[in-house]
Each structure stands twice: as C-alpha cells, then as structure tokens.
Amino acid sequence: MFKKILGIFSNDLAIDLGTANTLVLIKGKGISINEPSVVAIQYDKRGREHILAVGQEAKDMVGKTPGNIKAIRPMRDGVIADFNVTEMMIRYFIEKVHNRKGLFSPRIIICVPFGLTQVERKAVKESAMSAGAREVHLIEEPMAAAIGAGIPVKDPNGNLVVDIGGGTTEIGVISLGGLVLSKSIRTAGDKLDKSIIDYMKKNFNLLIGDRVAEEIKIAIGTAIQLDEELTMQVKGRDQVAGLLTSIEVNSEHIREAMKEPIKEIGEALKLVLEQTPPDLAGDIVENGVVLTGGGALIRGLDKYLSNLIKLPVYVAEDPLLAVAKGTGKALEEIDILQHSAYED
C-alpha cells in the first residue's frame, strides 16, 4: 500500500542510458528528454568541477572547447567510462523532469546492454541511486528493443531483434517474456564513425573529428551499392600540408569505409542464428529479424543482412526510439518488468 502511495506522489522514470543519446520517459506521459549523452565540465582556478552544459548544448562544444572546459561522453562502448560524470548527467536529467520539490524520489528503470558485467550493472544502479532515485531496476537492451518494436515478447514464439546503438550492437532471441539467447558486441555507431575517420585520413590525408564523421555517416552512409551515388563536401585539415581544406566524397567511399564494422555485425548475427534452438529457429524463419537503434537507419543495412543470412530483415517503426519506448512500457507493465529486469 505504501509503495502505491509513493507512486502517486512521484514521477516514475524510464531511462535509456545510451552511449550516443540518453532518453528519459515519465510514466504515463511519454518521452520527456532526448539529448546526446555529453556533459561539458568547466574547471575553476582551484581545479573544481562545475557542470557547464548537458545534452545537445554540450555536444555542440565537442572539439571546440578552451583549456578550462571539457566536453565529455561519460558512456563508452555501452558502459560507464566516467562514473562521476555519468552520475552528474543522470542527476541533471532526473532533476529536469522531476522538479516537484518536497515530494517522493522517483522509481527508475534503466536500460543496459546485455554484455554488462555485474560490477558495471552495480555502477549504473549506484549512479541512479546517488542521483536521487528511491528504487532502481535494470532491463536488458534486446528485451527493451523488442518491446518497443511491438514484438509480442510474452508469446511462445521465437523472435530475433538486432539493436545497433552508439556503443554496442545487441542481438537477442526472445520467447515467453525472456531472453533465450543474446549477444552483445562493441561494434556499433561509434566504431562506424571511427572507421570513417580512419578512411578519410588514409585515403584523402584529411583529418576530421567524431562529429563530422557522424554527419557523413548519416548523410551518405550506405551498406550496399546504390543505384545513384550520394555526394558530400567534407571539411577538415590536410595532414600533409597542415592547411584547412574541403573535398568531395561519395557514398561508395563511405560504404568501403564502413565495410569491416558492418561485416562484424553480420557475423555476430550469423553466430546467434547458428546457436538458436531448432524450434525457435523455425519461428525466426517465419517472423524474420527486426532491426532497431540508430544503426538500423543506415541505407540498405536491412538488405545487406537479409542477403547474408537468407532471411527477411525488417527495420522497426521509429527504430531510434524503440529501446526507450520499450523501457517505458516495461515500467508501465509490472509483469514485463519482473520478467525482464535484473535484480541483485
């Protein structure tokens, strides 16, 4: 009874704590925050840290800050790389959406990659508790992605979801409300960006940063050969002459640049299919594979993977928000939460 009373007076939250973006949903109200997972820290003369900006404002500062300011991405490869800054970021987002002072702290469910160790899971929970949560539950990313994509996860049928985020690609076979088989690899959006940076440096002697690489990936990135090539002007610094310059690149260049990371995602998917129990494999042949996450938006990735595994591959509706929506639905439906969340 007391827990029900607490629920009335607090805004319970669902958080998709992503490497690239953090989304916060308020129970019964939907997505309240969708911001880059970036924090800008300013250091005073005594070396003390102060939050200057969080989210999009902080991301706009990446690569452009003076010596006393650092724009930090506290999540790397789907895990907490900087515990203190992650806590600052979670606290900032909680306070931003849960601003009714004097009332009860929120109950929070946080989506985490399948591959997190128990130590890393504990760090995520402690960050949220330190940031003001009264109760913290964790749900694994493949399950959240499947729920958000509208897959009937509680049915006795096998479904396979591939969530390509910023730091990790999560692959899960789901049946009867649980993960039968899952694999997490640290090849995803960030690695695709890095492959573009390396390609531009090697083939064009052009030095670019993470932000520009991401813009290239979104604008002209592709997993298959296109009927009509896309082109883009890219600005950077010539590493030989040391001068600022601009060159034109096309979608074929970027397909070549991203070839190896995309191949790694395909190989991981094949490995999961090879390990899937026969009865569930038959269901997956019928239902196909569902793609979620920002990586699902890469042109032709569904066709590339379909040709590789000889099965239908579909991009979920609104793939960028699938994990966040699934995490929110898990908070709404306590039976899904109890089946899917990790408890210590």
TrEMBL record:
GO cellular component: cytoplasm
Compartments reported by the entry: Cytoplasm
GO molecular function: ATP binding
InterPro entries registered for this protein in UniProt: ATPase_NBD, MreB, MreB_MamK-like
GO biological process, one term: cell morphogenesis
Role summary: Forms membrane-associated dynamic filaments that are essential for cell shape determination. Acts by regulating cell wall synthesis and cell elongation, and thus cell shape. A feedback loop between cell geometry and MreB localization may maintain elongated cell shape by targeting cell wall growth to regions of negative cell wall curvature.
Annotated protein name in UniProt: Cell shape-determining protein MreB
Species per Swiss-Prot/TrEMBL record: uncultured Sulfurovum sp
Organism taxonomic ancestry: Bacteria, Pseudomonadati, Campylobacterota, Epsilonproteobacteria, Campylobacterales
Gene assigned in the entry: mreB
